[in-house]
Structure formats: C-alpha cells, structure tokens
Amino acid sequence: xxxxxxxxxxxxxxxxxxxxxxxxxxxxxxxxxxxxxxxxxxxxxxxxxxxxxxxxxxxxxxxxxxxxxxxxxxxxxxxxxxxxxxxxxxxxxxxxxxxxxxxxxxxxxxxxxxxxxxxxxxxxxxxxxxxxxxxxxxxxxxxxxxxxxxxxxxxxxxxxxxxxxxxxxxxxxxxxxxxxxxxxxxxxxxxxxxxxxxxxxxxxxxxxxxxxxxxxxxxxxxxxxxxxxxxxxxxxxxxxxxxxxxxxxxxxxxxxxxxxxxxxxxxxxxxxxxxxxxxxxxxxxxxxxxxxxxxxxxxxxxxxxxxxxxxxxxxxxxxxxxxxxxxxxxxxxxxxxx
Length: 338
Ligand SMILES: Nc1ncnc2c1ncn2[C@@H]1O[C@H](COP(=O)(O)OP(=O)(O)OP(=O)(O)O)[C@@H](O)[C@H]1O
Ligand SMILES: [Mg+2]
Prior knowledge:
Layout: E1 2-14, H1 19-29, E2 32-45, E3 50-54, H2 61-68, E4 76-81, H3 90-96, E5 97-101, H4 113-123, H5 128-142, H6 157-169, E6 175-179, H7 187-204, E7 207-211, H8 215-221, E8 224-229, E9 232-237, H9 239-243, E10 248-256, H10 261-271, E11 276-279, E12 285-290, H11 296-306, E13 308-313, H12 319-328, H13 332-335
Parallel strand pairs: 3-7, 3-8, 5-6, 6-7
Antiparallel strand pairs: 1-2, 1-4, 8-9, 10-12, 10-13, 11-12
Helix pairs in contact: 5-7
Bound molecules: adenosine-5'-triphosphate and magnesium ion (MG).
Magnesium ion (MG) binds near residues 61, 62 and 179.
C-alpha cells in the first residue's frame, strides 16, 4: 500500500555569513552545501498493516512522510501510495490519505473545530452515514464535543491534537500518516489516540504509518517496525525480530540461603567476565550478558550450579536498549546512563 523505492531527498542549505554584508555576500555568491536528509530509502508497508517508522532526531522521518504525502517531491527515487505518486497527483492522493504532523497544524487556525470538520466534510464529499458514524466515534473516544466553538489557535496542545487526529480520519482514508501524533499529550489522551487508531485499523483495515519517539505508541499500535538511521532504513520487520537484534540479554533470578545479594552480585561478575549483575526489586538479581560472549545456557548453567534458585526468568530485551544501540552506533552497555 505504501512503497518507497530508493527515495532520496537533498536540501540545499545556504550558509549565512554574520552581519548585513555577510547576508549580501551569501546572496551574491550562493554558497551552499547539500544536506542529504533521506538517502535511498526503500520499504513496503502492505495494506492493513500498522508500521512504526522510527529513528533518532534528524534521521529523516518527517522528510520521508512529506514525500509520501505529496508535500514535497523526492530528489530521486519514487514513492507510491495506493498506486499513486503523491507529489505528482496531490489531489487524487489526498482522497486516499489522512495526515497528522504533530509539529504543525493542518486545521484552519481561526476557525472553531466544528467548522473545520464541516469544511472537510464538503471537501472530501463525505457521505452522511460516514460523517455521523465518525463524529460519534470521536465524541466517544476523544471527547471531541468539549472543544466547542473555540478557534483552533486558542486550543491547548492536547485539545488541538485531538482535533488533528480526528480530522485526519474523518473521510475514512485507506492510509493514515501520523507524524508524532501524541507529542505533548497526557497519558489518558495518548491512550485515547492509540485506541482510535487501533479501532479504525481493525474496523476499516486502514494502513498506518506512525512516527513517534514514544515507545508506548509503538508497542500499543504497531505490528511492523521500520528503523531509519542517518537517512537509511536499517531494520524492517516485526517487533520481535527487532528485539532479537539486541546484543545483550538478561536473566533475573531469586535465590534462597547461600550468599547474600552483594556477595552474589560479586560472584557472578567475577566469574563471568563482561557480565553485569545488580540487585533488582524484591531481593532479585538482574544479570545482563553480552550475546556474542556468553550463551543463555552458560549463564543459566552457572546460576543453577551456584545458587539455590527460587525463580529465574529471561525477560525480552527492551526496545529502548535496542534503539539506543542503533541510534548511537555503540554497544548497548556503553550507552546506558548510570
Ligand atoms: N527544509 C529543509 N531544509 C534543509 N534541511 C532540512 C529541511 N528539512 C529537514 N532538513 C534536514 O534533514 C534532516 C532530516 O530531518 P527530518 O525532519 O526528516 O528528521 P526527523 O527524523 O523527522 O527528526 P525528528 O525526530 O527530530 O522529527 C535533518 O538534518 C534536517 O535538518
Ligand atoms: Mg520529524
């Protein structure tokens, strides 16, 4: 449904010299450098899939979304959304897609939300049944009525974001692009937005491409993950496969009798070089080991041999640890703040 074929976006950035003469000089000489925001991104998001598009600040996510929504053309490569090249066929494409840019409003700034919705209804020629069904849904899930007659510019961030998300979905688009749709929202509102996105996906098969720095959004909504780093896609697949790329794994155990916690921690660390151990909740001990150096079997074997285990679990690696390693290019253990 969403296809990116070797998408590239380069920006010309004119270096400004300080002062008025500097500005004039810049104008005359047109000295510039090229910023490669997206450098050859390829991926495919099938219909009905909810994909997360994640990466560090400046990785090129919003630029990719802008090309796929027709806001800007690629320098080279091609994007296809529901069979159309968005930047070539902006009008036809607009009927198929919904867009939220969390950092920028898509609504009419001086109009009350209710008026914006009436305009959208006309623009998209939304059938009455669809319009009323969706307004009822937004009332229920987003408490949209509460926004009343206040112009958009006077709304709080959370109020505006509710309206933005609702507006993007009003015409039942086949595809929705959500670029940081929960930025600045409180817990309850985040959950409401996640529930709405999951609801339309389940009911209508809406394809979702979501960008977020909130791990909670990604785990609550997405079934596919694309990780972009320095303008390139470095991972595409399910969440589980991404987590499996973790270079450290953990075992959490609880033991009885024998050595106390401090002693046990010291014993583990001195016997298994490269492994870190620390006290966890409820008298348990967490052991983190580098995958390349130790196997689960070796670590568990050691624990079984030296401790009278009451409990022992191997938690799944957490997404934050995996992402930190990808974003920083450093092994997870080095990037973890102490
Ligand atoms: N209009 C522009 N002119 C020049 N450079 C730009 C422009 N838009 C984006 N860039 C640059 O392109 C790179 C990617 O920006 P982009 O906004 O796509 O990142 P992002 O992944 O969305 O980051 P964030 O997580 O902070 O939103 C950055 O280095 C940015 O400075
Ligand atoms: Mg962005």
